[in-house]
Amino acid sequence: MSVELPRLYAITDGKRYPDLMDRLEKVLRKGVKMLQLREKDLSGREYYLRALQVRELTKEHKAMLFINERVDIALAVGADGVHLPSNGLPPSAVKRIAPSLLVGYSAHSLEEALWAQEEGADFITLSPIFRTVSHLEVQPIGLMALKEVSQRVRLPVYALGGITWDKIKLCYKNGAYGVAGIGLFFDHADSDRGSYSQR
Fold it and tell me: What is this structure's pTM?
């Protein structure tokens, strides 16, 4: 992969934040340079129109845009890539039909991470590292799993799930390339925290 990816990866949730666009602008202003638009409750047309808006914002802030699952929408709005759920299209299929797109993949185990690498994904999110409010029923896999996966795959690994600002260093210490999250960024969009560190 020739592109160097940013370390912070914000993921949207319009259901959780009705004022998403307002918060999103603040998150981008604070220095987040990589964003996944993940809006499962929107119709195809609504998703496309939202993606167009978000693409304008990300361009303005020189940030990368990934669209969750929808390769067609990613291509239609000129996104940088697509992020695939573990039960979605294989990365190799996306590479075949849309070679210009970077491909992220949601892995939840070493096996899935190794498969994603073999399939040609450009990076993975590994989750949930800690217990997370968005999936309370799911048992966290923990820092040891993060360490093992980070050592075994060549891809950038983003720690996801229950990440808070005081846990970021733990993730980096255990091999994470970067950190991803929803609340991590959007809960604090209005705080007086200055620019997010890119390290």
Answer: 0.95
